[in-house]
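Fold this sequence, please.
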Amino acid sequence: MKGTYMNLFCPKTKSLMKKFKNYLFFSILFLFYFVNYSQFLENMNVSFESYSAYYLDDKKTGDFKLENRFRSNNYLNLKSIFAKNWNFELQIESYMPKPLLNYSPNFENTNISTLKFEYNIKDLNVVFGSIYEQFGSGTSLRTWEDKSLGINNSLLGLNVNYKLSDEINLTSLIGQQKKGFKYSKGFVFGLDSEIDISQLIDSNSTFLFGLSYVGRNDQEIKSESFDNLTNLYSARIDYSGNSFYTNLEITQKSNNPILVFGTPSDTFIKKGSAYLLNTGFFNKGLGLDFTFRRLENMTLYSEISAAGNEFNESIVNYLPALTKQHDYSLTNLYVYAAQPDVNFYVEDLTKAGEIGFQTDLYYSFKKESFLGGKYGTSISANFSLWNNLGGKYDFLNQSYKTDFLSFGEKYFSELSFEIRKKWSKSFENIFLYVNQYYDKRMIEFESGQVKSNIFVVDNTFKINDKKSFRLELQHLSTKNDNKNWYAYGIEYNISSSFSIYYNNLYNYQNPDEDKKINYYNFGGSYTMGMNRLAVNYGRQRGGLVCTGGICRYVPESTGITFSIITSIF
């Protein structure tokens, strides 16, 4: 079997893949020369996004000794149906003169980022070029794009999806992973199968069973101690009825070298695993959702040496933080990021992954009831707890043995309670309380543990059908780290299209007087149809910015930012 896999990556195969990429990029010329131009343009959809900043020196946030103070990320996307069964997509990206701060250095100048041809006929779907795919929940494979995080980890290659019958669906793929405008030397390939059991037994409920395989062959590192081919095997069951659902997915990863100070170890080699359970019910205004996850040595990169990079490049699978995604600045001050890796950097700080759970409870009081009032009331509660894996850790010999359901040292916990209440036709508000525990030592390798309480009151006053005013008040209290913060925000929606705002974030009890900074921002946005323009001036607090549980670090800065999002036709 090993020999069979390795034949996929012989010099002849790699040469064919290189030719394939060249043919793919030049095929666009073929497209414009031979297709029916009127049909191509008639079905064309063009969108453009631009995010720019001009950075300014500021004694509080730092002086920027930048070669280019003006920086801009730009994305032009074209999609078209140019023949009966053919779709086409092209995305050109420009980072001129330089990308925004803390985006990967692999993004530079202007180049093609996405190029794909898609063929659909009956039960067959074939994609040549940029592949965006997900197997199950993504613990084995997910390729996606998120411009705000600077992530585009698509594969350049071939993806085939075939619906064998009403009950069975098969997907296969092979490609090299995108990292900026470059591509990994490693290959990623996979096969996913899903069976709709509910169709077989003629059930009104949804009952799915899936099996997945993903392989990563890293051509960059050669070693006699470990195999460059890493395999992931996954099985999942999804059930959903009238008021109850449950999903279980188990993923096993073959031996993979642990990085020790950035270098793959020839002796510290471990398997990995992921266990994910999500279940819940909903009925007449009541809902409960519970998620359990256990990750051990579970990240997978198309290039082993990319492990732990700050730009989330070359990552093959999707392991987001399973905590409540908040909308407010102070609730995101100590934000948790998933801890799926093995770390043996310090003798008294060793990690092998994470284990924990999150649960959400929702309830809506009916209108005209005692607690619901005239317009109804909604309440929700969330609790999450995430710990290191319990077990025996041997730092000197670089080895560990974990216990399956043992909770080790705590990383993070959060309890939140939210009330949403509409008091009249013109006034409604949100009350939010959050209690957090955040271990900076375990998560960031910095000293300190933070125990905090956060209060938020979000008020919206509706003036008329087009105008509204919003006032947001926040406070975080803690005896740890940089102590107390407050924040507030004012937003005035002048019309359904135009709004302006001002907000401020201030660490008023910081022991260091020089770090008592007002992180103020003011700006506005204008929206018309599919077009949106936004402008902002102010200070950016340094730290993690997260979307969907995936985070990237941004440095402190001061400047003017503006964005344009438009759909041309």
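The radius of gyration is 26 Å. The chain is about 10% helix and 60% strand.
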